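Alpha-kinase family domain-containing protein, pasting as requested.
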Amino acid sequence: MFNQLRIVNKAVKINVPQVWRFEDDGSSDEWSGQRHLCEPFIQDYQKFNSNSGWSDDSDAWAEVMQALSHFSYHLSGGNYVLCDLQGGIYQHEVVLSDPVILSRNREYGVTDLGSDWYQLLLQSA
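Structure tokens follow.
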């Protein structure tokens, strides 16, 4: 929805990680049989905002990401905030990695700090 509004001249995308499993070849290799979460490399990685209210106010793209967080709040009827936005800016797109969703009921795990925190985040927008 955010991309369809064409608020900025780049599409915002999220890296999709995969679970990779190292073959268990019977050797004593410490990696053998282990699983790891992997995702495509992001050039010039930077942090735009956090899940605890911090936002980078020194960069125009950080302001766009803060607007995306604010947009997610309104689009969800005030129930959720997409935050902890970090990633890279490319010629035609912004690629984000490992975002967090804040919810009223803390339903998204340990990084979901709940509604008190998303009110803080939105105040800094």
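Note for the archive: The chain has a mean pLDDT of 87.
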